[in-house]
Design brief:
heterodimer; A: Dna Ligase, domain 1; five-stranded mixed beta sheet; B: mainly alpha
């Protein structure tokens, strides 16, 4: 019987390994976990993994891959080895994210009202006003409580020194939180004793906290405002999550066709007539929300919804037009945005970013395509990006043309060696795989974070892309009190 | 409850019931073949083409296969995805409906549908061929388990009632089709006095009909061993206690509809309640002699027709997303939907809203 970690090569000289330190010893907070796994064989782990996969499959915990004809539903691969974050480290992440989200909300409020930051030339006005997701129609519209970004999930990574950096902000409709909750359930099933030995902070309160956040932004003064989830439908890649959250919050899951606007008020169509809706947790993009205002061909939206929103008769989470602040070009200004509104230095830093719209940067980008990661400003899910070192010469040339044709739309970042974490790869061995972290921030009356998040892991050997649509998996994430 | 959710509950239940009935017909046919093996070959088309008549149509079958034999018919009714009433299509549709309302049903219900769906994906035609008994039993049990889980984990409110309506309307329809086809097959000559069926092959066939409704044992308790076609009609159509008889099914669907709308005997509040009440009343006061007077085929066709009409009205009243026109079939008989104050008025508001676009 081979011991699980016998052949584990942390490669600590080149990468930051979450478990094994440079001194080749397990970090203190992983000690108990390592001892537990030392008792297991590959077969044991495989058996437990099989159990967990069955649990996921039977519950229909799947996501949908676009662009693939057959077998569109897949299980989001789950890795049994938990990621552990000690409390002091987490406290720093929490403070950093709350600082960041607070500043970004100030930024949105500003650019949709007085635009002071543009007048002060801290952020170039043309980049903001020209952003694909800037919604001119909402200038001057104040959402309830002045909050725009009620649910966010910024992606954090750790570089070779183990420093946490923000890779991108997801301020529109971030997904994945249901996996955070389900992974915890799966982990409790697979390793109950290990779980007990650690003091893991619970994440189970997330749905209740989300519901409270949504109720707080209700524009109507009711004791029990009616909140619904709006999904694009069962063919959306995150459909499972939409239904799961609705179920956990005990509220209705609606599609566009379930809602109707009359006299600028929103109603659900029910077997007993129409019922008034106060708050919509929408998982539909701005573009599809209302065929009268945005894309006229949208079948997912609700005609008249935007006017109802503008009149203050219904609240939307997140607000319309938040995408301008997670534009990857605007991202590069977030440190300045934090300083401008809060007068503080950022607790969490950005990854160094070059803007193709800046001629000097553009030159640098084109000369160093083989070293850089190039991303389209408004794509997500790992679509529309080039990982320079892993691309062919031909792919790089193609991308260079795209960049030159539309520089505003591209940014470049150094290829970061994301930190690595032991993971059960290919059902056969424990190997180091790259990971990131997406904690979820809720913002109603004030911002708060559930301790934990979704740790995504690139389960293909050497791969740096952790997106589920690109073969990534996930881990349970434990924030522990030491 | 959202109209869309109500509709999906109804269809989820209906498709599941359809899959179960298809499994029953096939199962019994296989058993029957074993009994009759000495007389005719198992693959004799006479034993397989009626199944297509009950559950689908011949044209569609012929488009896919040349002859009616065990393999082809099984393949068509179990595995063929182009056949919308094959078991695999039915369960796929049941699951699709369930998936779209996954937050409204209990997770146990979803797991059960999902389990069956994945099981069906893994079964090969060869497996069914080698051991049809186990396969059909699996389907039937899965359906019973689903209904049991629903009864024990799903709140007894409107949603549960829509599940019942779907199940019982489908069952009434399927029973009517089955009896219709078998009756025509087994009663060759018109006007012949329907005493005891003496021919042993026919008795075996009638027993098969009863078995496919899980009715043989219950039938015997009432009529002992008198396998008489009239008794069988009486039992499968008119019995008020047996849960797969047509009358029982219509009555159960009616009770569920009444719970939703608040209708009571002689006081219907909408068209769908009126139609189902009419069916129930007719079945309640009909005798086998009445059925013969009207002709068995005509009578059963009327039932199938009635189920369709109830389905249409149900759709208009509760499910239609846009501008439901709740037109009474007969203007003097129709009543406005008054189940809940203001329900009707709001519907028509949405109707105007839609038409302005």
């Amino acid at each position: 019987m081979t011991r699980l970690f016998e052949n584990y090569d942390a490669g600590a000289d080149r990468f930051f390994d979450e478990v094994i330190s440079k001194e080749a010893a397990p970090r203190a907070h992983y000690d108990k976990m390592m001892r537990r796994f030392a008792q297991l064989s590959v077969e044991d782990v495989r058996a437990r993994k099989h159990l967990v996969n069955l649990f996921f499959r039977n519950q229909g915990i799947t996501f949908t891959v676009y662009g693939v004809e057959e077998g569109i539903e897949r299980i989001f691969p789950f890795d049994l080895i938990p990621r552990i974050i000690p409390a002091p480290e987490w406290d720093m992440i929490e403070r950093g994210l709350i600082q960041r989200i607070t500043a970004l909300n100030e930024f949105l409020s500003d650019i949709y009202h007085d635009q002071k930051i543009l007048k002060d030339k801290v952020v170039p006005a043309d980049l903001v006003l020209g952003s694909k997701h800037f919604r001119r129609e909402f200038v001057g519209v104040r959402p309830p409580l002045g909050v725009y970004i009620h649910v966010t999930g910024s992606d954090l990574i750790r570089n070779t020194d183990g420093r946490y950096l923000v890779l991108e902000d997801n301020l529109r409709t971030p997904s994945g939180v249901s996996y955070m909750l389900q992974n915890r359930q799966a982990m409790k099933r697979a390793f109950p004793v290990l779980f007990e030995r650690y003091k893991v902070r619970p994440v189970d309160g997330y749905p209740q906290q989300l519901l409270r956040t949504l109720q707080e932004i209700s524009p109507t003064q009711k004791n029990d405002p009616k909140v619904v989830v709006l999904t694009p439908g069962i063919y959306n890649s995150a459909y499972f999550e939409h239904s799961f959250l609705a179920q956990q919050m005990g509220i209705q899951l609606t599609e566009g066709r379930d809602l109707v606007v009359n006299n600028n008020k929103v109603y659900t169509r029910t077997t007993r007539g129409l019922q008034r809706v106060d708050v919509i947790y929408r998982r539909v993009d701005d573009d599809f929300l209302d065929p009268l205002v945005f894309r006229p061909d949208s079948k997912l939206g609700v005609a008249g919804l935007v006017n109802a929103y503008r009149k203050g008769n219904v609240a939307l989470a997140n607000a319309i037009g938040t995408g301008v602040a997670d534009d990857k070009v605007i991202y590069s200004f977030v440190p300045e945005i934090i300083k401008y509104y809060l007068g503080e230095d950022p607790i969490l830093n950005n990854v160094e970013t070059w803007l193709a719209s800046n001629p000097k940067h553009l030159k640098y980008i084109l000369q160093n395509l083989d070293k850089l990661v190039v991303k389209a400003a408004n794509e997500s899910g790992g679509y529309g990006m080039l990982v320079g070192p892993h691309a062919t010469q031909e792919e790089r040339e193609k991308f260079a043309e795209l960049i030159v044709a539309n520089p505003r739309n591209y940014i470049a970042q150094p290829t970061i060696s994301l930190s690595r974490h032991p993971s059960f790869m290919g059902d056969a061995e424990i190997a180091p795989c790259h990971i990131d972290l997406r904690p979820y921030v809720l913002y109603g009356k004030s911002p708060s974070i559930v301790p934990g998040g979704l740790t995504r892991v690139a389960l293909k050997r050497g791969s740096l892309v952790v997106n589920s649509s690109q073969g990534g998996g996930s881990k349970d994430t434990w924030v522990i009190d030491i | 409850m959202l109209s869309r959710v109500a509709e999906s509950l109804f269809w989820m239940s209906r498709y599941f019931e359809r899959a179960e009935n298809t499994a029953r017909f096939l199962d019994v046919n296989f058993n029957l073949m074993l009994d009759l093996n000495s007389i005719t070959s198992v693959d004799h088309p006479n034993y397989w083409s009626p199944l297509i008549m009950v559950m689908s149509d011949h044209g569609d079958f012929r488009a896919h296969y040349d002859e009616y034999n065990a393999n082809n018919v099984t393949d068509y009714l179990v595995f063929n995805r182009q056949n919308s009433s094959s078991i695999i299509s039915s369960i796929g549709m049941a699951r699709e409906n369930a998936r779209s309302i996954i937050e409204s049903i209990s997770s146990e219900m979803w797991e059960q549908i999902n389990n069956l769906y994945h099981y069906l994906q893994s079964v090969t035609p060869q497996q069914v061929h080698n051991d049809p008994y186990s396969f059909y039993k699996e389907i039937k049990n899965a359906s019973h388990l689903f209904q049991g889980i629903t009864d024990n984990t799903f709140s007894r409110s409107e949603g549960w009632d829509f599940v019942q309506i779907g199940k019982y309307l489908e069952r009434a329809d399927n029973s009517a089709r089955l009896i219709d086809v078998k009756y025509q097959m087994l009663m060759p000559k018109r006007g012949q006095h329907l005493d005891l069926v003496k021919n042993s092959v026919d008795i075996i066939q009638w027993m098969a009909v009863l078995k496919s409704c899980s009715a043989l044992e219950a039938f015997r308790k009432v009529y002992l061993s008198k396998i008489d076609p009239d008794n069988i009609l009486r039992f499968l159509i008119l019995d008020r206690a047996f849960p797969r008889s047509i009358t029982f099914s219509i009555c159960a669907a009616q009770e569920a509809l009444w719970r939703i709308s608040g209708s009571t005997t002689h006081r219907y509040v909408n068209n769908v309640d009126r139609l189902i009440g009419k069916m129930d009343a007719e079945l309640s006061y009909t005798t086998v002699d009445d059925i013969h007077m009207r002709g068995v085929h005509g009578f059963l066709e009327e039932i199938q027709d009635g189920v369709i009409k109830v389905g249409e009205q149900l759709h208009l009243l509760y499910f239609a997303y846009h501008t439901p026109k709740i037109e009474p079939l007969d203007a003097t008989e129709g009543l406005a939907f008054t189940g809940v104050a203001g329900g009707r008025a709001n519907w028509s508001q949405s109707q105007q809203q839609q038409q302005q676009q």
